[in-house]
Design a protein that fits this description.
CATH architecture of one domain: 2-Layer Sandwich
Strand content: 15-25%
CATH class of one domain: Alpha Beta
Helix content: 40-55%
CATH superfamily of one domain: Histidine kinase-like ATPase, C-terminal domain
Strand order of the largest sheet: 6-5-9-8-7
Number of helices: 20
CATH topology of one domain: Heat Shock Protein 90
Structural class: alpha+beta
Length: 829
Amino acid sequence: MLVFTTHNIIKDPPFINLDLLCCRNLLIYFEKDLQKKLLPAFHYSLKPDGLLFLGTSENIAQFNEHFALLDSQWKIFRRKSTKQSFPSWPRATSSGLDGVIPLAGAEKTSRKTTKKKTRQASDQTARLKQELQCTREQLLATIEELQSANEELESANEEMATSKEELQSLNEEALTVNVELQNRVEELRKANDDLKNLFDSTRIATIFLDKEFRVRFFTPPTTAIIPLTPTDIGRPLSHFSHSLLDVDLAAEATLALRDKEPHSKEVSSRDGLFFLMGTHLYRTTGGAINGVVLTFLDITERKRAEEETSRAREQWERTFAGLGDLATIQDVDMRIVRANQAACQTFDSTEENLRGRHCYELFRGLAEPCPDCPITASLQDMDVHRAEIEHVNLGKTFLVTASPIFDEQGKITHIAHIARDITDQKRMESQLRQAQKMEAIGALAGGIAHDFNNILMPIFGYADLIRNALPTDSPLLEDIAAVISAGNRARELVQQILSFSRQTERKRVPTRLHIVVKEVLRLLRSSLPSTIDIQPDISPESGMALADPIQIHQILMNLGLNAAYAMRGKGGILRISLADAKIGLGDFRKTEGMKPGAYLHLQVSDTGCGMDESTLERIFEPYFTTKPEGEGTGFGLAVVHGIVTSHEGHIEVSSEPGVGTIFDIFLPRLPSDHESATKAPKGQTIPTGSERILVVDDDEEIVRMLQHLLTVLGYRVTHFVSSPQALQAFRKNPGEFDLVITDLTMPGLTGKELTRKLLAVRPGLPIILCTGYHAEISREQALALGIRDLVIKPFTMEEIATTVRKVLENRKPPTGVPLPPATRKGRKN
């Protein structure tokens, strides 16, 4: 039985009949007298042979007759049984007869006395033996305790030796760390010295604040604005006043922390100084924002200089604002009093000759003020007025500013008349509007191209399927060929629209110019009136040039439209020819600056109105045009000249008024071996396969066509018209497909987004991206997304078959995702 209770062993009566009494490390806290009192009480509490468990530093002292030692190491004692002692009665008091020995019975008395003494001696001997036995047991217990203590001391000594070695190791590490810390402290001290010298030498007042806007540090010039001392470090900024006017430093610091970006503003102080106050973020080395830095750059001298300059400029602008403009000072009757050099040069006169003339007479050749004259308005309301005025006799447009000049009484005495020539600006505005129109046309063309190419896609696909399904002697092959030819013409028309709207990439590639010329001829025939007879002379055997087909297209369209403009109304003949040409040393007078060699000669001529010599000299200048305002930008032939020059070519023009104009363009021809190398091999069969392909396109007609086409080629096809559903199916079994063909523009998930999610599930998955408008994504962008190839709609059966085979043969198995075996059968579609 186990009983828990509160018991005071000193005051309370002891328990009885205990089997075990554990009193470890308790007696050492009591005095010896109290120990002598408690040990008999422990003996009383225990049963016979009960156990007493003391601490390692405690013993039973002189109570060996009560307890026997069982285990010296753990100080376990067994209770001994003791005899009960009875009190002895006191002896009787002696009388005077003690000294008298009666003779009668003396022998008997002697024997009793001897027996008594013998018994006393025997009792004393027994007591001595008992004390000796107790002493021997105590000595044995002491010896065992000493042996145990010795073993503990030896163990402690070994532990101390180990601890000593560890302490020595720690001491060595501490010494090393201490050296490193000293080096770091030295580096920090040097950096601190450099920083302190930097701050002491700078003239910029700077104060560093923590997030609670407590002062962390400040430079000496700061004290001129905020009265700070070194003991103010750690105090809030709000505890200090400053000399700035209408500035809340705490609010500026809060704004910088809120916006997470620096701010700056000009401020002034009560003593007339000006500062450029900057509020910057205090960033730690880890990039965390840990406060704000306020800087105050003294710009007083600069402000005063600006004010003086501003006053001088204001006076000057009221007299002659802008020396490049036509500036005159006129009286209230609009007579010129003064004129600047620009006005004199414009009117090819001197200031003396201009003085006294009316401005409306000089500028517009009128006898009375212009109805929209800003001077009249300024004289009426005494304010500054501006107006755009077109001066027909000068052929220019001016932005006229009229600013009244007052005397001390506030009366208008003169008018500052500033006329700024904005002819070029108006022309550029017109060109900008034209460019914006072209941009809108380009955006429209892009949308048309995308939709039209998607429409053409099923036509090409099903036509190819029918052609491949027909026998070689079928009369329908010619009909299908006509359908495919019409589709190709439609595809070329889309490309021409994109070229016209400048939506295609500009790359110089080996190009057969006769193909580009034929495309332009088809477009010109549909664009020009029937009164213009187009006569082509194109050599199909002409060579190749390293050129941008779109820019060549642009050259021909520009020259063709210019020729049509020259023949407007009466009509005429437009001739376009292309042939090989060889330039030798003897031809240099005609083609000055050209290197000898092989060229392609492109000529565009018309029977229009022609041009005179002065026009021919400026024909390639930007902004120069012979067309009325609003009909031409003046950039067309300048762009043509720039394109030809960028192709390392040469352009010449000859013209005769009333006869017509001829443009000759020479472009370097590529070597014949390069031309033969670029010819596509013929007679190749359409590649096939048996892999598993996932097709995704939101156009159901295109999906069905691709599914049919790829199935004919031997592939196993799974198709979806919903990109989210396709992604869900792919995630269920990523290893099911060998290739994914996806459209670019789709609802839900675009082709780009679907590609990212597919590759996140299965890295290295071969993907082909299809688009009907390749300006939406370049090949480089597609490759960067992880797409293996980019296919432009509409494409033929041969094109998609070749692309699929190329991608599949160059694929690399993704790590961790097993490819499906070639023999595994797919589910039915």
